[in-house]
Amino acid sequence: MHTVKCFECGADVEDEFADACPRCGGILTIEMDLDAASGMRPADLRKKPIGVWRYAPFLPVDERNAISLLEGGTPLYHCKALGKKAGVKSLHVKYEGANPTGSFKDRGMTVGVSRALELGCKTVGCASTGNTSASLAAYAAKGDLKCVVLLPNGKVAAGKLAQAMFYGAKVVMVDGNFDDALNVVKTLSREGELYLLNSINPYRPEGQKTVAFEIVDQLDFDVPDRVILPVGNAANIWAVYKAFKEWKALGWVDKVPKLTGIQAAGSAPIVRAFQAGKRDFVPEEHPETVATAIRIGNPASGKKALQAIYDTNGYAESVTDEEIVAAQKLLGRTEGVGVEPASAASVAGLLKLVDTGVISKDERVVCICTGNVLKDPDTVMRSCEEILKAKPTAEDVKRVIAK
Ligand SMILES: *Cc1c(COP(=O)(O)O)cnc(C)c1O
Ligand SMILES: [Zn+2]
To answer: Domain boundaries in the chain?
Structure first.
């Protein structure tokens, strides 16, 4: 059992298709009834394989209706070499690039698309910087639903675009940025043309909570001191917060890690609000960054993110595109872990915050790396050494590699 509520005024929201509070326009959230879980012990969960649906008692959709591609269950890498370089006691990377469509979006989508089917919807849709559309297109295919995705003009990474097209969605590029595309898809949803599956749909973050459950599960309930993640629309940091709060309420964890959100310098409204000590933010009119998945000027869940950060004694910081690309390479070349630029923002943020003394050397840190390196091959190839050219002889190959 669960109820949909307004995050801002607390009203109960009955309309199953609402994308905002009918009373105050605030963002929605779900309050889970944890009674079913309260008689359980954490070990009981382990009867099922690790993945999103292991945590079914914490999800607002009946498991029997699940449209699943076996999402979640991603590796938690113990990155000893990179942790040493960064200068922290321990570092783990939660590698969300290992999800079915290559990003954490699949965790929310399995729940969101299952919900769409529970409601009898025939068409689902979203606005997307890329990964949401890739994920929705795949789950819509699995659930036999029609799918419409709206992308901002020109700035979608090749891997993501290819996926949305491949899984058979109607792919529409609108002449505007992400925030413009979101406004259009909201209107389509209000007109009944489609069921909206952006992360303002409160069922999405419920699925995304499972990344935090898995981290705790994989660390055998030894909760880390800090979790660092990139922030775009800001639903994921909220989801992680909500997960820890639910398990804390049950006494399954004894503390909530300091949640630390990293934005790109050209797209950092949450960081500015945090620096000013505010609980609300001023949108960035012209967001710019190489990390297209977090190129968001008006984060839909921005107020939720600020609560997550303040309430956990966390932090918000921005990193430059150069720092992002450098961290992406460092992670790849130190640990063999390939992530897309937005995901590398978490590692870039770690390096910066250790440098500035915000993160102390005795902390046990987990960086959530949200998406796969293959999502954005163009950025990778721009930042790497050039391909060497040689004649088809061993001698000439020896000559060029010796340089
Ligand atoms: C969606 C996405 C983000 C941002 O997540 P929010 O919930 O919008 O803050 C970060 N990285 C990647 C790879 C993403 O796809
Ligand atoms: Zn409200």
So the answer is: 76-102+205-383
Which residue carries 């163009």 as its tokens? 378
The pLDDT tens digits for 113-151 are 999 999 999 999 999 989 999 999 999 999 999 999 999
Return the pLDDT at 207. Answer: 98
**DSSP characters over 260-317:** EEEEEGGG-HHHHHHHTT-SS-PPPSS---S-GGG--SS-TTHHHHHHHHHHTT-EEE
CB of residue 236 inside a 6 A radius of ligand 1: yes
> For residue 4, what pLDDT is reported?
98
Report the Cα 68 to chain-centroid distance in Å.
18
Cβ 369 vs Cβ 343: under 8 Å: yes
Q: Which of 96, 227, 294, 343 to mutate to test the pocket of ligand 1 (most atoms within 8 A of CB)?
A: 294
Q: Ligand 1, closest atom to CA 371?
A: 13
Atom nearest to 131 CA in ligand 1: 15
Per-residue model confidence (pLDDT) at position 222 = 96
- Which residues lie at CB < 5 A from ion ligand 2? 6, 8-9, 11, 21, 23-24, 26
Nearest to residue 108, comparing CAs of 4, 3, 211?
211
Question: Does the Cβ of 342 fall within 6 Å of ligand 1?
Answer: yes
Q: What phi and psi values does residue 126 have, to the nearest 5 degrees?
A: -160, 165
Ligand 1 atom closest to Cα of residue 305: 9
CATH number assigned to the domain with residue range 76-102+205-383, chosen from the 4 options 1.10.3720.10, 3.40.50.1100, 3.40.50.920, 3.90.1150.190: 3.40.50.1100
pLDDT digit string (tens) for 217-268? 999 999 999 999 999 999 999 999 999 999 999 999 999 999 999 999 999 9
CA–centroid distance, 108 to ligand 1, in Å, is 11
Q: Is 231 in the pocket of ligand 1 (CB under 6 A)?
A: yes
Name the DSSP letter for residue 252.
S
* Spatial distance between the Cα atoms of 44 and 90, rounded to a whole number of angstroms: 28
Residue located via tokens 């609000």: 273
